[in-house]
Records
---
Amino acid sequence: MNYILSIDQGTTGTTALLINTQTFAIDHKVNFEFPQHYPKPGWVEHDLDDIWHSVQMSVKEVLSSSNVDANHIKCIGITNQRETTCAFDLNGTPLAKAIVWQDRRTSKFCQSLKDDGVEELFKSKTGLPLDPYFSGTKIHWLLNNNQLVKKHSEVKKLRFGTIDTYLLYKLSGQSSFKTDATNASRTLLMDLETGDWDSELLNILGVDQSTLPEICDSFTDYGTTKGLQFLPDGIPITCLLGDQQAALFGQAGVKKGDMKCTYGTGAFLLLNTGEDIVHSENGLLTTCAYKHNEQMYYALEGSSYIAGAAVQWVRDNLGFIDTSPAIEELARTIKNLEEMENVLFLPFFSGLGSPYWKPDAKGALIGLTRDTGRSHIARACLEGICLSINDIIKAFEQDSNTKLNSLKVDGGAVANNLLLEMQSTFSNLNIIRPEVIETTAFGAGLGAYIGSGAVKLDEVMNLWKEDKTFSPLKEKDYFYKKTELWNHVIKKLYL
C-alpha cells in the first residue's frame, strides 16, 4: 500500500495527512499547534524552529498512529500559509523570526511607496496593492532592521523565502532552494505575465534576486528528502502550493469560473479566471491559481484577515467557550433575532482586507445593551465573519458582472452548520460543503501525485464529492437589515 504525504503548514499549526494512492481517501491526519508571538501591537511572528518542530512531530505521529512504513510514501506535497516571510542562512538556520502574513509593521512604508506614486506599477505587474500583507515589504523591513540579516546579506549567505521554500530547503537537506508560482505571486516581486522575479520591483524594495528561490511549476520535481531523522532519504517532493490555491485545487477548482472560500484563521475566496489575467476594479487581488506545464492559470482573490481567529478570540480572550466548535451551540441559544439587530462584531484585529484595504483598521464590538450576553456576542462573532465574506462575494459579482449562485466552502470552521446557514442567507447563494473539508492538504496531496507523474491533472479532479448544500433561511428581512447596518458602520468607522 502506497501513500501520499501532504504537509499543510498553517498559521496556527501543521497538519500531516496521508492519502491512499489507490482510493485517494484520507487515511490519517495529525495536527500540531505552535506558539504565536506578538512583540508589539500589530506585529505577528512565528519561530521557524517551532514550525520545523511541528512538521517533524506531525509527520512522526501520523506515521506512528497509522502504522504506515515511511518507505511506502510515494511522494510529498507541501502547502503553506502564504506571505509569511522567512530569512535563513545557507545551512537553513533561521536568522530572524518569520514575519507572519497578519503582521502590519510595514504599514507606514507601504504608505510612503504610495506617496512616491509606485502603487499602480506594483498593481499592474503583480496584481496586488501595496499592503503590509505581502512578503516584499516584510523582506525590505528585515534587510533594514535586523542586524543578522544585514550581515548575511553583505557576505552573500542570505536566503529569503515563504514557508514552502523554507520547508523544502530543510526537507531536501539544503539542496533545493525553490518556490512555486502561487507563492511567488504573493510577494509583490513576481511579474504575473512572465512568472519571473521582476528586476524593477526588486530594485524599488532593495532585494537582491540571488537571495530569492527559483520559481517553478506547482506540480514538478522539487528534489527528494535528505538527511532527516523522521523520513528516509529519497522521497520525491513533487508539489508546492500556497494554501488558498491548494484549497481551490482540492475543491476541483481547475476550470475558469470555479470558486471557493476557505474558512481558516482568515477567510479567503478564489475565483478561477483560467489563462486570463483579470485586474479587479473592486478591491480584489489578481493572483496565480497554479502553474502547470509552464502555463500560468490565474484567479481573482478576496481576503478577510480574520475568520476562525475571531472564534479563537472569543474562546481565549473572553473565555466564553472551552472549544471553538462550542460557539455554534452558544450562538443557537438566541431564538429572538430582534435581540441581535444592533449588535455588530467587526473582526478587524489585523486590519480590514478586501475589498477596502484599510491596514490600520481595528476590531470593534458595538450595539451593546444591558441585556447583551455571551450568546449574543457569540452569534455576532459568526455574523461578523459572514458579513466580511459577503463583502468579498459582492465584489466578485461586480468584477465578473455575474450573479453568483453557489460557493464551495472548506476549512475547519465549515463544520459549523449555523455559520454556513447564515453565510448562505447573507450572500443569497447556495453554500456547498464537500465530503473532504481538509481540502488544503488534500489539494496539495493531489498536486503531489500529479507532480510525481503518476496521474494527469484531469484524472484526479473527478474525486471531489459533495457532503451538503445550505440554502438561504427564511428570515431574510433580519439579514437584510443587518447587512445595511454593517455597510453603514463600515463607512462611518473605516472609510
---
Amino acid sequence: QQHRLAQAWLLASRLRDAITLLTGRSSDVLPTEPTQLSTLARLLGYPPASGARLVEDYRRTTRQAHAVVEKLFWE
C-alpha cells in the first residue's frame, strides 16, 4: 500500500515539474493536445510518440492510489 501511494506521489511530482518545464506554468492537469502530451512523455523518459502510454500509466497509478486511500480511510 505504501509503495502504491509513493509511486503516485512521485509520478504526480514528476508530471507537475515536467508540465512547468513544458508550459512555463505550474499545473496538475495533463495537456490534451497530442504534441504537448508526447513532449511531456519524452521529458519523463518515455520513447517517442508515447503520450497515450503516459496517460494510461497516470490513470492506472492514480486508480491504484485511490483504491489504497479508500481502503485505509473509508472501510
---
Amino acid sequence: MKTLCTLLALLLAGCTSIPEGATPVSNFQLDRYLGKWYEIARLDHSFERGLSDVSAVYGMRADGGVSVLNRGYDPAKGDWKAAEGKAFFIDSPSTGSLKVSFFGPFYGGYHIVALDPDYRWSLVLGPSRDYLWILARERQLPKAVMEQLEGKARQLGFDTDKLIRVSHERPDA
C-alpha cells in the first residue's frame, strides 16, 4: 500500500512539473497578472478542441489561491463552454509557476516562461511539451511579438508548426 501511495504521489506531482530546460519567470507579481487574458495560440488538446474566442479570467480567492474561469465558444454546438478552477503557487509567489485544478484533487502545471514587462502577453507551458498557450490582454498580438514567443517555444523544444491560432470574433459577454 505504501508503494502505491508513493507512486500515486509521484504521478500527481509529475503533472505539475515543468518541461526539461524551461524556467518559470522570476519577480512575478500576481496582482499584475490577475484579470482577463485572451488565448492567442495553443497546442491542441481535448478540453479546448474546436473552441474559438477562448479567454481566461484570474482572480483572488479567499484562501490565498487564484480563481480561474476559462471560457470559449463551441461553433459546432453554437454555445459557450466554461470551466472553473483554482490555482496555487508551487513554490514562491514571486516565481511564475502554479498548479491548476479543474477536477478535484488533480492538478496540472501552469508555468509562465515569458512575460511582457507590462504584463501584456505571456507564454505558458503545462507539465510537458504537449501543452503550450500564448496569452495576451488584447485579442491580437503584433507579428513581431508572436514571432518572438514562437521562437522561444521552438528553442524549448515545442513543435510550433502545430500551434492553433485562436480567432476572436464574438463580443465579450
---
Amino acid sequence: MKYIKLMKVDNSTLEKIAHLSRLYLDEKEEGKMLESLNEIVEWMDKLREVDTENVEPQTHMTREVNILREDKVIEHLPREQGLVNAPKHDGEYFRVPKVKE
C-alpha cells in the first residue's frame, strides 16, 4: 500500500496548535516545539513502514480480563481514629483551607 508522506509542521500550524492549547510560547520555545512536533510527525511516518497486514486490531495492550481484586467488605478505620492526627477537624470532617472563593 502506498502512503503519502506526512506534512511538516510549520509556524502557522504551530501557532494554531498553541492557540487551541492555550500555550504562550516565546521564540526560543517555538523553535524547540516546532522541532519536537516535526520529530513526532517523522516518527509516525516511519511507523507506516511496519507491515500490519495480518495483525488484528487491538483495543487493549493485553488479553487480561478484570485483573483487579474482588471487592470485600472489611472493617474500616473509625472516624475518631482517622481524625486523631488531622491538624484541623470539626469532629466529623477534616478542615482544609478554602481553595475557591
